[in-house]
Amino acid sequence: MTVKPNVEFGWYLPTTGDGKYIGIKPEREASLDYLIEVAQTAEAAGFEFALIPTGGNCIDAWVVGSAVASHTKTLKPLVAARPGLIAPVLTARMAASLDRLSGGRALINVVTGGTPDDLRATGDPLFNDHDGRYERTLEFLKIVKQAWEESHDFNLEAYLKSGGKAGVHFKGRYFEVEGGVSYPAPVQRPHPPLYFGGSSPAGKRVAAEVADVYLMWAEPLEMIKQQIAETESYVRQLYEQKGIRRQLRYGLRAQLVVRETEEEAWNAAREIISKVDPRVLAAAEALQGRTDATNQQRQTKIWKESEAKDYVIGPNLWAGLSRIRGGGAVAFVGTPEQVSDRLLEFVDAGISSFILSGYPHVEEARIAGQSLLPLIKKKLENRQAQLA
């Protein structure tokens, strides 16, 4: 059993509103003051970064990321770049600017998909072409990474003298760039870390080639091990076919319900969905049924197959929220001791980045900071000490 180094913990900013319950109108508006409060609470609790979601009903992630970065000192904003909805060189410039203004804290979450309805509404011509979107993402990220890497040595005078020969030159199926330049250069070298999700073979192939952290939504442990093994096969394939040697980190997106006793935790978990509006439930199921995203299809299958078991899908692992909200809805439920042990099992499987959240996000971040994070970090330190 190998201990994975540098395990990081992130929180989540609820940019569609927040409250104790889901499936009803949010009790708290996603105001600037509230999102700053969530971010500052997460930072004080010991979380290192914060995922800012994207989608048709979310406040823009870049705007929120810039705002919370100016009101925190160490918390890193993980903002969404959406290939096909924004140009790659502009993305490189925006990310580098955020990295500069935040003192080297920018993290980039590459979001390839979404529901066909949302993609169509935003003008994505590939709204109905799943694998085509990942091909485009690969081109997009190659341009972005090259723009970042070249920006560290950028010299305006030399660039102008080159007559357009310097800078990024790329011609692919989806993008064509001549003399692309990203300025300013990011603080982080060679560039801000790229977080990337996508459970399909097309998604895993792209992750193997260009991502830094491959993100998965929480599933039963064996399913996560299988996903990691599949992605690692593409990493090996990349080396065998192109001679490119890369090492990926793996991340997990999940919910938290942590209480002093297990009974309290399960009661609190079930209370989150106790006031669901039937119309919201019907809309959520319809939306899940129309998606072509493999990760969402997996989540839907998990909750449907566990319905007769009160959505329990493993020790201290619950899919009850998945029926109502999309994305990473599976929750760790239990005492600090139980949940920390479950997290360690995922660390042993290869996870080194956790993105956690709970309802409401201020109160649950405080609970995690008081009872869970110190315990899991202590257990990780003890493991490392034993190996020293």
Describe the structure.
It is built from 13 helices and 13 strands. It has helices spanning 32-45, 61-69, 88-101, 116-121, 130-151, 156-161, 201-210, 221-242, 262-272, 278-290, 294-305, 336-349, 361-387, and strands spanning 8-12, 49-51, 76-81, 107-110, 168-171, 176-180, 194-197, 213-217, 249-258, 312-314, 317-318, 331-334, 351-357. The strands form two sheets. Strands 1-2-3-4-7-8-9-13 form an eight-stranded parallel β-barrel, surrounded by eight helices. A two-stranded antiparallel ribbon has the order 5-6. Helix 3 (88-101) links the parallel strand 3 (76-81) and strand 4 (107-110). The protein is globular, with a radius of gyration of 21 Å.
Reconstruct the topology from this structure.
Blueprint: E1 8-12, H1 32-45, E2 49-51, H2 61-69, E3 76-81, H3 88-101, E4 107-110, H4 116-121, H5 130-151, H6 156-161, E5 168-171, E6 176-180, E7 194-197, H7 201-210, E8 213-217, H8 221-242, E9 249-258, H9 262-272, H10 278-290, H11 294-305, E10 312-314, E11 317-318, E12 331-334, H12 336-349, E13 351-357, H13 361-387
Parallel strand pairs: 1-2, 1-13, 2-3, 3-4, 4-7, 7-8, 8-9, 9-12, 9-13
Antiparallel strand pairs: 5-6, 10-11, 11-12
Nutshell version of this structure?
By secondary structure, this protein is of the alpha/beta class. 46% of the residues lie in helices and 16% in strands.
Q: Indicate the mean pLDDT.
A: 91
User: Strand count, sense and closure of the main sheet?
Assistant: 8 strands, parallel, barrel
Order of helices and strands: EHEHEHEHHHEEEHEHEHHHEEEHEH
How many angstroms does the end-to-end distance come to?
15 Å
Proportion of residues in helical segments: 40-55%
Q: Report strand %.
A: 15-25%
Structural class: alpha/beta
How large is the radius of gyration? 21 Å
Count of DSSP H/I helices: 13
Low-confidence stretches: none
Principal-axis shape equals: globular
Strand order of the largest sheet: 1-2-3-4-7-8-9-13
Record field, number of beta strands:
13
